[in-house]
Amino acid sequence: MPTPVPTRDDMIRWLRTTEPEALQPLFRDALDLKHELLGRKVHFRGIVEFSNVCAKNCRYCGIRRDNKAVERFQMTGEEIMECVRWAKEAGYGSVVLQSGERSDAAYVAFVEGTVARIKRETGMGITLSLGEQDVTTYRHWFEAGAHRYLLRIETSDPTLYAQLHPDDHSFDRRVECLRTLKAIGYQVGTGVMIGLPGQTEDDLANDILFYEAIDADMIGMGPFVVHRQTPLAPAADGFDAGRQLYRALTMIALTRLRLRDVNIASTTALQALHPEGREMGLQAGANIIMPNLTHTRYRRHYQLYEGKPCLDENAAACRSCLEGRISAIGETIGYGEYGDSLHFARRTGGASGGDEA
Known about the structure:
Blueprint: H1 8-15, H2 20-38, E1 41-51, H3 77-89, E2 94-99, H4 105-122, E3 125-129, H5 135-144, E4 148-150, H6 158-164, H7 171-184, E5 187-190, E6 193-194, H8 201-214, E7 218-219, E8 222-223, H9 241-259, E9 263-264, H10 268-273, H11 277-283, E10 288-289, H12 296-299, H13 315-328, E11 332-333, H14 342-348
Parallel strand pairs: 1-2, 1-10, 1-11, 2-3, 3-4, 4-5, 5-7, 6-8, 7-9
């Protein structure tokens, strides 16, 4: 019997369920559907957080422009390539380049050159998570070799979005960037923060319907974890870590059941709430993990939220740890594969994931 697609009312009911044991049937259904459609492979996206210099001032973010306590850094092109070469030798199929948000000419050119070099020297799959840019920049980065782009909406509710961002941010602009990326030909990812102050279960159900409406290929969402050096910190006093964790796992499961063949990341923020948070995400329907490749000397300066795990763990130790954790839950790692979104392949008529990197 096909796994039923949850309605909006179903999603709200599950999101209002607070007892972990009562959520287990939902998680099992999502895991079964993942195995049916995508198999038991987990695909790695080795992430390089190459700069914490940011022009934006989002009220929830630890590297926001006005946080003067942050020591700013920018990795060189060669430092980035050291991380990427290690990932290639370790059998990773793809890398993610992430940084604070900038759009100045020097930054845009640096990213374009770095993307082209990664593609030329390694042939790896490349995901970018570099914020809002104009259409010319997005196109140049795509032509240089990037083929996936993650731009989280953070919330699909415009009123809540305005509470998270200063007046110089635009919800409509964010949505338009997602449409632009899709038109260019990227595999497009988005996502939200789960458990924000003032966010309701109705809002979260609407977030999943937003993913569906824009026909997203990838979802990268995670629990809201506070950073005390941000304006949003006081509003998060008294948050229950366990509730945040299970709300996030519920969103993963519901997104899998509703969107079915998309790629869903089990984010590091889950592990900030529970030592086995990422494995729990995989068992709730996620199929992507993003091990950190960033040099350890920079990691403590790239904390969007507090309690980020693995700040002192080098890439080799992280790989070994994840191998054991993933094997223990009966899944395998798709080494040497892009692990592209099956949803993207189906909507475009292109080749499915599993291309050799």
